[in-house]
Amino acid sequence: FYGEGTWTSDSVDGLVLTQDFPLGDWLASFDAYYGKWERIETDGNTLRFDIAEISGALGFYAWLESPSGQLRVGVGANRFEVEGGVNLAPGVTDAEETRYFSLQVGEQPWRLRFEISRRDFTGGYWQASYGELVFRASETWQFAALYDVGHLFFEVPFFATFDDPIEELFALSATYSWSESLKFKLEHHWAETYGQIEDRTISIFFEEPEDVSLLIASIAWSF
Fold first, then answer.
1. For residue range 151-165, what is the model confidence (pLDDT) as tens digits?
2. Sheet holding 141-156, edge to edge
3. Which residue from 12, 53, 101, 177 lies 20 to 30 Å from 185 (Cα-Cα)?
4. φ, ψ for residue 209 (rounded to 5)?
5. Which one-letter DSSP state was computed for residue 107?
6. What would the pLDDT profile of 160-187 be if each residue is shown by its tens digit?
7. Could you give the dihedral angle defined by the CA atoms of residues 184, 135, 193 and 165, in that order, rounded to the nearest 10 degrees?
8. pTM metric for this prediction
9. Which conformational region is residue 139 in: left (phi greater than 0), alpha (psi within -120 to 50 degrees), or beta?
């Protein structure tokens, strides 16, 4: 759902206005921004990287949280101009619009989170969403389940149209905490994806997605 180093930015070169205000016992916050940034883009098949220049960006986020903290709702939107990157020819500028929705319910021992975003651009749109359920069984054990899907609609005039999930993933995990600073995590991922598979490029127009299974064990130590 969130780009990890690509297709995203954590800052804006411009102006940001932030306002927090109470609504009875509820807490609301609002952020509006205008400016520009650079976005690292990657082609999901070839893993080619390039820099896109984002300019004239205008957007906002709004959050509403219940007094107990057990309910948190957020919405957001932005619009900006893009030049460069992996998809646009040199000198070509495109306009993009993105809308976001976020919902988190519960705190302990159960927590459910759902988020969805849609990014519209010339020729199509990218819609990403996920649902995550976390259960803390005790001070030492935590379990989680995740469903994640990215849907792409992309039309190449006089050639072909793609309108399907480009990646669909389901994951389960168990985390054991020896202490606050030492944790062990075991997770399993199942996915259907058009992403790069063992250095082989998959055509979204002519091939079916690959089935992928990952088992990951990790130890985290913080101090």
1. 999 988 888 899 999
2. 13-23, 26-42, 49-65, 71-84, 93-106, 110-121, 124-136, 141-156, 160-177, 182-193, 210-221
3. 101
4. -65, 155
5. -
6. 899 999 899 999 999 999 998 999 999 9
7. -160
8. 0.86
9. alpha
